[in-house]
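Weekly modeling sync, notes
Attendees: S.R. (lead), two postdocs, one rotation student

Agenda item 3: backlog of single-chain predictions. S.R. asked that every request posted to the team notebook include the full sequence so nobody has to chase files. The rotation student volunteered to paste the first one in as an example of the format we agreed on. Action items at the bottom.

Example entry:
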Amino acid sequence: MTAQKFNQFLKEITKEPLFVIDKEITIESYTPIVLSAKNKDLLKFDISSSRSWENYINTFLNNNQANVAFGGYLEERNLYDRSKYFKNETEKRNIHLGIDFWCEENTKVLAVLDGEIHSFKINDNYGDYGPTIILKHKIDEEVFYSLYGHLSKSSLKEIKVGDHVKQGEVIGFLGDSSVNGDYAPHLHFQIIRDLEGKFGDYPGVSSLKDFNFYTSNCPNPNLLLKITQ
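Predicted structure, as returned to the notebook:
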């Protein structure tokens, strides 16, 4: 299936918005956020500090009378510059491949669709996902995956590979900065067509060099979620 056809396939799975965090937090209480260099507020605090990030996110939510700030698909972000994990001598990875949901730690994380636990892992590089769960989905013979990053360590304790999950089932909780890669609490949610043999992990940020591949392999999650129309 071509990337264009897969995008249409994702779009047609549901007409209604799907939840990946606590359903009791209504979509009406979500607000979009920009974390690229276009947001000049990011020049006003230390973006290498998770505490400063948490203060910024909380203030942003309060100012917008919202409970969740979301966004980031294909956003170029400078915040990854703080970690050597995202750059080397020839290139840097700073193009975000999922949607982030910034909200309180311990917020419930939900399976986006019926599926099974493909893998899970604590990705403990500085600035990485921390505890991560990947689900495998099969619809109309099409297999694809959803990734949930920046969870709490307790989210991984009672699960095993092959466990079946139902759409909307709680599969974990958001972690704090001590376990989630040193970020303000948030969920990184990503759709992946081909995991390329990876287990419990998959790149969530692309370099410009690999942009075409990753945008084809990791389509916009909002095609499925329908947070915005």
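Discussion: group reviewed the output briefly. The longest helix spans residues 50-63.
Action items: rotation student to repeat for the remaining queue; S.R. to check formatting next week.
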